[in-house]
Q: What sequence folds into this?
């Protein structure tokens, strides 16, 4: 049917000898190209937050994500400061206020990020905000704006606040990703569910990344192992879908929930299932964009250099693809699906390391 439709549209092609993805020759060509990438040291396996379709139970590439309108919560939550942070501030009581649209990620909070270049204030309500955002905070009704103390973000670095959901310590970090265009200037940081969160925690040497959500978007047993909810309520959440947990989490926050509203915004959806996607840290295969493996240059640098040799009609076309290459993250190439080209590599039984031996790779291909 497709072949006849293409012909009726006047498309010229070798229709009697189509190049079909289901042919073994096609799969072999893809695998050979992948082997060449692996031999150059550009193929890496790592646990990193990626777009995840819980409906399709698979990772997604950026090109497989579509944006639609979605209604979400907008909440402000107070994290009481731990003793080390209170001592640094020289006060007996204070709370760091974070803003988030994903209450379901709060159990996996591991840190609170501050902007290293900004001044922060402690208000008369004993709440901490970034100074540039104080006026908008006053308009929202969270504070009257009376300042008791001003301090640099670095004062709180590596001290702690307490997560009101579970009593776990949340470490104060400094990160350039913290913007002053909204929120409070204190960013709820869950490295298992956000790319910026992941990188700032990596920078600070976090050895463990919490990610208590299974393939289908439900909380798993790690809630219990890590104490991510109070012991008297945790059983209620194991097996619950994360989007259904939002209201119950808001209830558990109690007086620490300073404000809650709903709003509509553009949100990523899965192109196949048309269900909202999440960020979820899982082990995936990536083609590294910034590893200097190509004669001391990265794949990004090499691709941009090669792009200069291409003639575009119209010439403006180079700007779009050039921008895509400049800004794209490492390319997640693995999928959790029953079809497609297998990533066929062997592992060492003892070390579990992947064997990138040229002779073995050539034999499989």
A:
């Amino acid at each position: 049917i497709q072949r006849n439709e293409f012909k009726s549209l006047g498309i010229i092609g070798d229709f009697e000898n189509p190049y079909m993805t289901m042919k073994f020759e096609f799969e072999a060509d893809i695998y050979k190209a992948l082997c060449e990438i692996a031999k150059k040291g550009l193929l890496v396996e790592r646990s990193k937050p990626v777009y995840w379709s819980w409906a399709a139970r698979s990772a997604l590439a950026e090109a497989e994500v579509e944006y639609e309108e979605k209604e979400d919560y907008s909440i402000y939550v107070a994290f009481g400061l731990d003793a080390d942070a209170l001592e640094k501030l020289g006060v007996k009581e204070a709370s760091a206020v974070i803003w988030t649209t994903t209450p379901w990620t709060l159990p996996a909070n591991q840190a609170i990020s501050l902007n290293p270049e900004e001044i922060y204030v402690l208000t008369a309500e004993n709440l901490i905000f970034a100074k540039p955002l104080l006026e908008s905070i006053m308009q929202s009704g969270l504070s009257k704006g009376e300042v008791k103390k001003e301090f640099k973000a670095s004062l709180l670095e590596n001290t702690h606040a307490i997560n009101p959901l579970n009593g776990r310590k949340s470490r104060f970090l400094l990160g350039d990703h913290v913007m002053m265009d909204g929120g409070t200037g204190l960013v709820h940081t869950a490295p298992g569910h956000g790319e910026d969160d992941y990188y700032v925690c990596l920078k600070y040497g976090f050895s463990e990344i919490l990610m208590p959500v299974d393939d289908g978007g439900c909380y798993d047993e790690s809630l219990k192992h890590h104490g991510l909810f109070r012991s008297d309520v945790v059983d209620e959440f194991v097996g619950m879908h994360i989007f259904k947990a939002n209201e119950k989490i808001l209830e558990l926050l109690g007086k620490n929930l300073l404000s809650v509203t709903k709003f509509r915004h553009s949100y990523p959806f899965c192109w196949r299932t048309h269900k909202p996607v999440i960020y979820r840290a899982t082990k995936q295969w990536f083609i590294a964009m910034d590893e200097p493996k190509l004669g001391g240059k990265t794949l990004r640098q090499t691709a941009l250099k090669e792009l200069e040799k291409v003639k575009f009609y119209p010439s403006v076309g180079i700007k779009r693809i050039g921008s895509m290459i400049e800004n794209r993250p490492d390319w997640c190439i693995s999928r959790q699906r029953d079809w497609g080209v297998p990533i066929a590599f062997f592992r060492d039984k003892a070390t579990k390391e992947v064997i990138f031996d040229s002779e073995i790779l050539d034999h499989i291909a």
